[in-house]
Amino acid sequence: MVFLSLSCWIRSRGPDRYWKIQEIVKNAKHFRGRKNRCYSLAVKAVRRAFVYATKGRRLKKRYMRTLWISRIAAASREHGMKYPVLMHNLTKSSVQLNRRVISDMAITEPRSFLSLAKVARARQQEGFRAALGDGKEPVGVFSRVVLLQ
Amino acid sequence: MALCRGAGLLLRTLLPGNPLLFPAACRTQSSVSGVLVPWTSLTSPPWPEQMPPVCEVEDARRQAAVVSTVNGSIERQDYGRLFAVVHFASRQWKVTGEDLILIENHVEAGCGETIRMEKVLLVGAEDFTLVGRPLLGRDLVRVEATVIEKTESWPKVHMRFWKRHRYQRKMIIVQPQTVLRINSIELAPRLS
């Protein structure tokens, strides 16, 4: 007997199911529990992981900047200055170093950081002297304040 | 006594907002004279009352001494290892000799070619620091680097997902990278 229609009943239902599943489950191999093996649980966990990674890449920039700022504040307080005073006076003296480099210098190059703090302090004193002046009115101005003193 | 008490009561009812008539703020005889105001953070200015006097002659002398010391050590080339802060590829890098830098974009130079980094913001040695405002001169510092490797980054996944809205998008981002090795940082003599 020859069965001719048997071969017509064999179907190929998607030859690459294994690789499609592995593509997702391989990203979950370091997870805990059944979500590192079972496809339906792994899909949800991997999706969350990718979304958290995407959001984390944006948040990392913010966290790093906060960290640099707090390090610079701590280092400047060791020299008797506050962070806003230091940064404002450095920008007024047109020193355009960013916070990452200044915090690295505060850790590894303390003497250079001290020199930056001195630059900022000198600019601050100059600003005070320019603002307070001699205590006299400018030429051509007559006011009761000076008379009463 | 009764008259003045009555007058006081009358005045109090007529002008209830007058602070001078409130008994808590009014003292007829006290050791402290003048306007009594509680001391707050804005009572006195935040800077110290007496500014240190400025002596321009002394300042000029000190500056000349510092400049001559630094000039002398630069001419004798006895400063040891130098570090520099360089502005390159829209980022600032704190750089010494022989160290590697990974830059997350394409640099217009082939592998093995030497690059000179011109935007130097700060140069420091053990005993002195040269701070640029904002940049140091091109004839003062020379920072040289070699391009070692040009690759691509590992494939990063950018995924967006809104729950209960059947929305998810997945994108793979591969960025070009360049690795530079800093060969040397050189200082030229003659500061003004």
TrEMBL record, chain A:
Q: Which Gene3D superfamilies does this one have?
A: 6.10.160.10, Ribosomal protein L20
Can you name a GO cellular component term? ribonucleoprotein complex
The answer, when asked if rRNA-binding is one of the entry's keywords, is no
One Pfam family linked to the record: Ribosomal_L20
Q: Which domain of life is it from?
A: Eukaryota
Q: Which NCBIfam families match?
A: rplT_bact
Identification of the protein by name: Large ribosomal subunit protein bL20m
UniProtKB/TrEMBL annotation, chain B:
| Any one GO cellular component localisation term in the record | cytoplasm
UniProt keyword Signal, yes or no = yes
Which keywords are on file for this protein?
Signal
What SUPFAM superfamilies does the entry give? Answer: L21p-like (SSF141091)
Residue runs in coiled coils:
none
- The domain of life is Eukaryota
- Signal sequence segment: 1-19
Say which family it is in. Belongs to the bacterial ribosomal protein bL21 family.
Q: Name the PANTHER family on file.
A: 50S RIBOSOMAL PROTEIN L21, LARGE RIBOSOMAL SUBUNIT PROTEIN BL21M
Protein known as: Large ribosomal subunit protein bL21m
Q: List the taxonomic lineage.
A: Eukaryota, Metazoa, Chordata, Craniata, Vertebrata
